[in-house]
């Protein structure tokens, strides 16, 4: 916000804090085995969580059955929720059952133990919401309506996914690899070296197109570091890629789909810009 802008105090309430929750190695309890539960399970498995599932086998969704057969990060109990003992050592609880009274009871037990809980279809009982998500490689985009309209969030998600370049995930991956090589060459946390790393990575991400970042390989990264980082400059793509760029071997950006709904199209176009600049923002962590 510009320093001379007038603060809109009405905008300081009514929202949620959107975070990237790190669940690797954390224990997540899921109560319920139906369609909603299967989606929840998939989401937390993607985040490398350890899942404990409590649900009668007779009601298990096919996707949930497949997940139980294909991952070793799930523990399954063929029964209903048994009370406080099921919450021992749990870091997060997700309920997706058609029993409002039991859902409320589980929520109360979680609140008493300060365990974050999400109760499907009962927003007031949720400490957090599951938004509609887009995932391509390491890039994740979440659309949240703060529990107001999940259907609209899903529609927006599809529109945004349709206009994202196919190689945006590859670009993020390659930037991460370049960032790792730079940290090996110029180690240290904070200080002038850290600030210089951040500035240089941001300059690379803003000077090169997504297609150019996506085609980076080990040889190009080394040349970029040797001819760029060492001299505190950002070489042009042609200097690093040589004939590859001249011959047009870089992946071309697919034409953007034109949304039928003007409102959704406006939102999708805006968030596409956000997704593209996320690569530059990632570099700030260097």
Automatic annotation (TrEMBL):
Domain Siroheme biosynthesis protein Met8 C-terminal: 165-235
InterPro entries the UniProt entry points to: Met8-like, Met8_C, NAD(P)-bd_dom_sf, Sirohaem_synthase_central, Sirohaem_synthase_N
Cited SUPFAM superfamilies: NAD(P)-binding Rossmann-fold domains (SSF51735), Siroheme synthase middle domains-like (SSF75615)
Known EC number: 1.3.1.76
GO biological process terms on file: siroheme biosynthetic process
Membrane spanning residue stretches: 263-283
Reaction(s) this enzyme catalyzes, per UniProt: precorrin-2 + NAD(+) = sirohydrochlorin + NADH + 2 H(+)
Pfam families linked: NAD_binding_7 (PF13241), Sirohm_synth_C (PF14823), Sirohm_synth_M (PF14824)
Domain Siroheme synthase central: 137-162
Taxonomy, superkingdom: Eukaryota
Keyword entries, A-Z: Membrane, NAD, Oxidoreductase, Porphyrin biosynthesis, Transmembrane, Transmembrane helix
Pathway(s) the chain acts in: Porphyrin-containing compound metabolism; siroheme biosynthesis; sirohydrochlorin from precorrin-2: step 1/1
GO molecular function term, any single one: precorrin-2 dehydrogenase activity
The protein's name: precorrin-2 dehydrogenase
């Amino acid at each position: 916000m510009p320093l001379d802008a007038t603060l809109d105090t009405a905008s300081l309430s009514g929202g949620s804090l959107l975070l990237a929750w790190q669940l690797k190695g954390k224990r997540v309890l899921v109560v319920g085995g139906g369609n909603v539960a299967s989606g929840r399970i998939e989401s937390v498995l993607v985040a490398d969580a350890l899942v404990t599932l409590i649900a009668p086998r007779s009601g298990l969704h096919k996707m949930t059955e497949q997940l139980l057969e294909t991952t070793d990060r799930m523990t399954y109990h063929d029964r209903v929720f048994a009370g406080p003992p099921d919450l021992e050592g749990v870091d997060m609880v997700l309920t997706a059952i058609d029993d409002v009274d039991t859902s409320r009871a589980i929520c109360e037990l979680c609140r008493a133990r300060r365990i974050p809980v999400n109760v499907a279809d009962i927003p007031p009982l949720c400490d957090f919401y599951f938004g509609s998500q887009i995932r391509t490689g390491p890039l994740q985009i979440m659309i949240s309506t703060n529990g107001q309209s999940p259907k609209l969030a899903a529609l927006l998600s599809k529109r945004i996914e349709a206009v994202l370049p196919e190689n945006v995930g590859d670009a993020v991956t390659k930037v991460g690899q370049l960032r790792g090589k730079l940290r090996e060459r110029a180690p240290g946390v904070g200080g002038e070296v850290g600030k210089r790393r951040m500035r240089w990575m941001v300059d690379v991400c803003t000077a090169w197109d997504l297609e150019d970042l996506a085609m980076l390989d080990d040889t190009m990264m080394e040349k970029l570091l040797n001819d760029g980082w060492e001299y505190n400059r950002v070489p042009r793509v042609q200097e690093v890629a040589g004939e590859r760029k001249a011959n047009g071997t870089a992946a071309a950006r697919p034409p953007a789909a034109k949304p039928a709904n003007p409102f959704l199209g406006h939102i999708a176009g805006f968030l596409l810009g956000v997704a593209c600049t996320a690569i530059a923002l990632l570099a700030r962590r260097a």
